[in-house]
Amino acid sequence: MATLINELCCNCGACEFVCPGDGIHRDGAIFVIDPARCTECVGFHAKQRCSFVCPIDDCCVPDPERVESEEVLFERASKQAAAAGREPLILTEKTSHFRVGTSRSWWERILPGQRDATAQPDNLESRGEELS
Ligand code: SF4
Ligand code: SF4
Predict the structure, then answer these.
(1) Which of 16, 25, 57, 101 has the fewest CB atoms lying closer than 10 Å?
(2) Local structure of 131: helix, strand or coil
């Protein structure tokens, strides 16, 4: 539940249907993320899909009030997948931004130091732009 949409949102709707947790909905002039549904796309994609598709830089950003570990996020994602009848999720560099270097940079750029304790080694730095 650590991603939020800020006031830069232009209400384009591009993020709504790419969220694997069905956690994004219109709320008046902007879209909002339900923090109870957001998994930071852990278990599903290598990057946060809402941030990836959003046409506005720094509109879908980490919520400083909701910093969570990969373990917690993956547990939530696994429950969502099971409820939807999907195959069990796995954690790889293609399904968790914790395992790619550029995602760590995404966090550190906006919230310096917040993710140091849970960040993964940087040996996968070059694979961060993959969209899985
Ligand atoms: S980070 Fe992923 S799970 Fe969270 S709101 Fe964005 S698309 Fe949905
Ligand atoms: S993609 Fe970005 S600008 Fe468009 S609705 Fe979602 S948060 Fe707002």
Answers:
(1) 57
(2) coil
Indicate which residue's Cα is closest to atom 2 of ligand 2.
54
3-state SS record for 112-129: CCCCCCCCCCCCCHHHCC
Residue 95 Cβ inside 6 Å of ligand 1? The answer reads no
- Here the CATH number for the domain that contains residue 101 is 3.30.70.20
23 touches ligand 1 (CB under 6 Å): yes
- pLDDT less than 50: residues of the chain: 116-132
Domain count, the chain: 1
Q: What is the pLDDT of residue 128?
A: 41
